[in-house]
Amino acid sequence: MIEDRLKLLLYLIGLVVASWLTSPFPLLLGLLLVVLLAGRDLFSILHRALLATLAFSGPISLAYLGYSWWVLARLPLDWLVGFNLRVLLMAMLGFLLMRRVNLFQALAFSRRLSYLLVLAMSQSLVWRRTLDEFRLA
Questions:
Q1: Which of 4, 108, 116, 137 gives the lowest tally of CB atoms within 10 Å of its CB?
Q2: What whole-number distance in Å separates Cα of residue 122 and Cα of residue 110?
Q3: CA 82, CA 62: separation in Å to the nearest integer?
Q4: For 107, phi and psi rounded to 5 degrees?
């Protein structure tokens, strides 16, 4: 139980650090660390994180790229690389957390947080069931 709390705390610290980083090199080091921590689950985590990154930052990156090229007549590649690496790092951290941490045990110290987790999990299960029903229809 304490191990899950520690992992959750490290995850939250990792998110804060990743949100502060702007240079691609430290972000790449963070990605390397996550890759090492992922172990056998690397390809599953990487696949999901790449899809999530593409879905989230793809449209944002394309819009910013088009705007910068149209208005400023230059391509902001340094910003785009940093932004997308940051999103990929945060997504990989999130998927690694879901694989390695039992959130119910990590939040067992607080009844309110446990209650919120139960509400969030039940809501996500309802959405998952609805999606499955739409696929079957």
A1: 137
A2: 18
A3: 14
A4: -105, 15
- Give every CB contact of residue 48 below 8 A, 6+ residues apart in sequence: 91, 95
The answer to whether 90 and 15 are in contact (CB under 8 A) is yes
Structure tokens at 18: 């990743």
Give this prediction's pTM: 0.86
pLDDT at residue number 102: 93
* CA–CA distances in Å: residue 5 to residues 31, 83, 92, 104: 22, 29, 19, 10
What is the chain's percent helix, strand, coil content, to nearest 5? 90, 0, 10
74-79's contacts with Cβ under 8 Å and 24+ in sequence apart are 78/24
Count the residues in the chain.
137
Q: Tens of pLDDT along 81-120?
A: 999 999 999 999 999 999 999 999 999 999 999 999 999 9
pLDDT in tens, 66-81: 999 898 888 888 889 9
